[in-house]
Amino acid sequence: MHKLTFILLLLSSSLSYADQLIVEAFYDKNTRLINVHLAERISFVTTYDLSAPDRFNQKLSEGLSSDPSIAQKQAKERILAQGNEIQSQLISAYEGSLKAMQYEITKLPAVVFNNGQQVIYGENDVNKAIKIYYEKVGK
Asked: What gap in Å lies between CA 114 and CA 20, rounded to an integer?
């Protein structure tokens, strides 16, 4: 009986998640997003800062020698010393850029719906972008 209840709960939570709107919002240091917390009440929201790769590179190159051969050696030592932590920072920093390329984002801010089905450009209010999306798709 417990297994059946668990399976039914799992299925019902999967169905409600499947019906939830998937929103991905892209911005950079010059275009901040607002009302993300409101949007999270009605949809699954992920935000991507496309300035993150620049910040990652700046942090990685901080304090390196101006001599390129010495700087290369120092950078390798840093990467080896930080191991998995730096790898996870690298992935996190570039994830948004990869998604933006996948969706062929041409302008910021951009709010993408349901894995690229629809994109709204120029709206930094994520909650308002969701309202615009629903107006366009008729919901």
From this structure: 9
